[in-house]
Amino acid sequence: MQFGHFDDQNKEYVITTPHTPLPWINYLGSRDFFSLISNTAGGYCFYRDAKLRRITRYRYNDCPRDSVGRYYYIKDGSTVWNPGWKPVKTELDRYRCRHGLGYTVLESEKNGLAASLECFVPVADNCEVHRLTLTNRTDAVKEAELFSYAEFCLWNAVDDANNFQRNFSTGEVEVDGSTIYHKTEYRERRTHFAFYTVNRPVCGFDTDRDSFCGADRDLDAPQTVLAGSSRDSIAHGWAPVGSHHLHLALQPGESTSCIFVLGYVENPKDDKWEAPGVLKKDRARALMEKYRTDAQVDAALQELHMYWETLLSRFSVHSEDEKLDRMVNIWNQYQCMVTFNLSRSASYFESGTGRGMGFRDSCQDLLGIVHLVPERSRQRILDIAATQFEDGSSYHQYQPLTKKGNADIGSGFNDDPLWLIAGVGAYLRETGDFSILQEQAAFDNDETKAQPLLEHLRRSFQYSCSHKGPHGLPLIGRADWNDCLNLNCFSDEPGESFQTCSNLESGKAESVFIGGMFVKYGAEYADICAHCGLTEEAAQVRAQVETMRAAVLDAGWDGAWFVRAYDAFSKPVGSHVCDEGQIFIEPQGMCVMAGIGVQEGLAQKALQSVQERLDTKYGIVLLQPAYTSYRLNLGEISSYPPGYKENAGIFCHNNPWISCAEAVVGHGDRAFTVYRRTCPAYVEEISEIHRTEPYVYSQMVAGKDAPSFGEAKNSWLTGTAAWTFADVSQYLLGMQPELDGLRVNPCIPHTWKAFTVERLFRGTRYHIAVRNPDGVQKGVVRMEVDGKPQTDSLISFVPGKADCYVQVTMGTPE
């Protein structure tokens, strides 16, 4: 069942009913100011940090769901309704939600009065712009009352949700004409405030939630709206809100627009003054003046459209598969940018109050966006590196506002250091900017300990070298990529004492998955060293890589697939000797991507085991058989019911690893099958089962052991976005950046006869046409660059070249 459709020409997903299985949302904002908005106008906004600079409230898991947003109430006679249906939920005569790139438009109609609500965050300003256009489609005069509504969060979202004994006394507002200022905390800090304004005179306002709603009422039937008159309330503590009241009269056929701006203002740090609580409004007024007219709003929308057009023009494909083109050219890259901006911090599944920016997460996000925003990728890398410790380990998370490591979570995830090499390697291959390696980056945000970025990479690699277990495999620490696989915990074997490894450094649990990472990203680090002229170090690194390769093939091979790990007592996890959890997806993907076992034929055998034991119609599950009871020696992974999350759920994040691995061994048919099973555009028709948005990836889908098999969760902010784009762009379509140029090495279904790619690479636009006359899955037999044949599939980079035309013919090499 579908609840809407793709509009590829306008790069929109059009939702045709408010009754979607879950709230289907969009993200507004591209730099510092971000908003979440659902198809029924729910959501919230914040400046940079969803925890420390939350501007509007959102009540998670509330009933009814998605019950707080930026709402507009229209009172037309005795009928009250909202352009987005909620919260009044009056049955509409017409409804449509268009989620586009950085904007959302809600279009509806009731009793001959049509509404169009355009919502977006301008490219360069810290505000939301809402333009509500009302059109009288009847042959009689329409008089309507319009009420806006936004509920202010008291900045720190955690404190706002917990510290009521203080917060009920601190909320402060100020009303100046048509502008409502939210200045809670301004008396104390005098650095930031918010405002909510409209571009025309108002006939009333409210800033106190209880006054707006009335006693014993909720947002679905606020007393102010039903009465048709605001109370001009001023909030003193309790729950400050912003609501404007406008009276509108429309002649038959007439349209009128009201432009609302919800903005954030931060005074310069050196801006001192003495009057406590007195707002400096000049910056706010300047921002308001930029969005007072329709012409100004139209210009800002056009700038936003051009921003996304420019970004997405950096990589595009044209094939015979419109769903593939749709995802590659629009939605996958769009999601990669949103995920890069926010890591995993603020979604409808993450409250924005805990995780902040993830070290591992942000490094992986770079894989999907280095080609889009290389300059921002550069700064992100330096921010990430500054959260590393001197020994090469790192904070697992940091707050985006302060860029300081999250001490509550700390460190100990032993895959983190290698992900830094992965992210920096992706940046270097994309940009050729080796100057970043000489940029100074602090350790633990202590500038007195700053070292060149190259030294950070060196310590990342050395940390993995110095943290090995009894089998010569990397120690897992608290966990590796699978946060829930906590092996330095307890023993549940009969006759063995229940003991905990309180010091992770003494924990002996090992990760074959990190072993695969060590081989893959260690080889990339060796290439970086060689490119920098560090010949001796490159040789030493390669020797360590080969030692690890041998250890994985020895202790990490189980006979038909790669072992997942060894627990604190050196017992295998993810082995045929286990009663449950015999095979895991992660090492099969990572080890084969690293090339381990390819020449020996073991990689192909491991991938065949994945197909036989882990495949389902909705994707590849993380492990089998699922754990049916809690295992003290495995930790959180076994705390989930079978089929959910890490306990045999379909973790979409690592499904691309298998697709990439299949491409490594030349299986184009299988690689594309794996790709499309979790790709949103291909599962749109089962939205009633899948439930999450059909235009973006989700983190996980319930596995075959679950009662809700096929149901997705945790959409939008997931490493699935970046890894899937890396899979489809580099492994399937075969556009592979390398340190010395761009390699073209597709691995595609044998039924594909041709496709073209346009790819901006280091300032040169590559126009690449691929033909597959013999129906092969992998192999390039002929390539011409600007009309000249060349024997290698690597196109050497030529600085200053505007365009490069490439003709590729696939076939079976002699």
Automatic annotation (TrEMBL):
Domain Glycosyl hydrolase 94 supersandwich: 11-293
Sorted UniProt keywords: Glycosyltransferase, Transferase
Keyword Transferase found: yes
Lineage: superkingdom: Bacteria
Alphabetical list of Gene3D superfamilies matching this protein: 1.50.10.10, Glycoside hydrolase, family 65, N-terminal domain, Maltose phosphorylase, domain 3, mpn423 like domain
Alphabetized CDD domains for the sequence: GH94N_CBP_like
UniProt-recorded name of the protein: Glycosyl transferase
Organism: Caproicibacterium argilliputei
